[in-house]
Design goal:
Elements (H helix, E strand, L loop, with lengths): L4 H6 L3 E2 L6 H6 L16 H4 L2 E5 L5 E2 L2 E6 L9 H7 L18 H11 L4 H8 L11 E5 L7 E6 L8 H21 L4 E4 L11 H17 L8 E6 L2 H14 L19 H4 L10
Parallel strand pairs: 1-3, 2-8, 4-6, 7-8
Antiparallel strand pairs: 5-6
Helix pairs in contact: 7-8, 8-9
């Protein structure tokens, strides 16, 4: 599909090669080690598999992006209204809270994608009526006209101070289930928004701790090497700063090893240098 120069400048496709790994961000000084004791041992391989990206998740040309959905997987207004107006009563994405941004570029792309004349026919042909999803769960569909290949719809919890422990488990389950689904479907990349931190009110710091810990546990698991890239996508500068601050706790930079370097020779004091040599043993 061709774009005018103004469209391509305003609404570019984000390719995997455009997204720096955490290792590269450390190298460029975008993420800096902090003084907090890391929660995990440094692993250089993990740093090449995890990324932090600020921008539009719907523009990403990767194997899968995650949509923060509600339990019905049905929305109400905004982009979802455009989907319903196209006659998609059997199937609808709760895509409105995918980003906290209300940018026209994102809205326009989603409208083009989901109101495309072939979209209802593709859905009915595939039989992809999802039928809702429990909180903490996720389901996968094709992404159709979006740059990504698939969308994984994860149902995050509504934050509650009276039920913090349970909501934390549900949020962790969103990330774990999405990662498992990606592996089961042979995908190599997955991009996460900050699930539940928008209209569902989950505090960004708490949610980021959960996201990073769950992803680290996945990286350590037997399936960890099956995904080439796990991307945390943020929109605001505030959220970006939270991730940049917390990433070193979960994915610390490996300290330079000095094991093989010769020990520095300590200078001999004048007093010691004047001591007589040890007597030779008699033969």
């Amino acid at each position: 599909m061709s774009h005018s120069s103004s469209d391509s400048e305003e609404d570019p496709i984000v390719r995997l090669s455009d997204i720096l790994t955490v290792a590269a961000q450390y190298e460029k000084g975008k993420i800096k080690p902090n003084k907090t004791t890391p929660r995990h041992t440094a692993n250089a391989t993990f740093l090449t598999r995890v990324s932090l990206f600020q921008g539009d998740i719907t523009a990403m040309e990767v194997d899968s992006i995650v949509n923060a959905a509600n339990r019905s997987l049905l929305g109400g207004g905004g982009v979802d209204g455009a989907i319903h107006s196209a006659g998609l009563t059997e199937f609808s994405f709760f895509i409105g809270c995918l980003l906290k941004s209300s940018g026209t570029a994102t809205t326009r792309r989603m409208q083009v994608s989901f109101t495309h004349p072939t979209f209802p026919r593709l859905i009915r042909a595939k039989g992809e009526t999802l039928g809702g999803c429990d909180t903490g769960g996720a389901k996968i569909t094709k992404a159709y006209k979006l740059p990504s290949k698939h969308i994984i719809h994860a149902v995050g919890p509504v934050y509650s101070r009276s039920d913090v422990e349970n909501r934390a488990k549900q949020l962790a389950s969103c990330y774990k289930t999405s990662l498992d689904i990606a592996v089961e479907n042979g995908l190599k990349h997955i991009a996460f928004p900050s699930i539940s931190t928008g209209i569902y009110g989950y505090p960004i710091v708490d949610a980021t701790h959960i996201a990073l810990e769950t992803v680290h546990q996945f990286c350590e698991s037997e399936h960890g090497g099956k995904l080439d890239r796990i991307i945390f996508v943020v929109w605001s500068n505030k959220d970006k700063e939270v991730y940049e601050t917390l990433i070193p706790e979960y994915f610390p930079l490996e300290e330079e090893s000095t094991t093989n370097e010769p020990a520095e020779q300590q200078p001999v004091s004048e007093e010691l240098s004047q001591l007589p040599d040890a007597p030779e043993e008699a033969s």
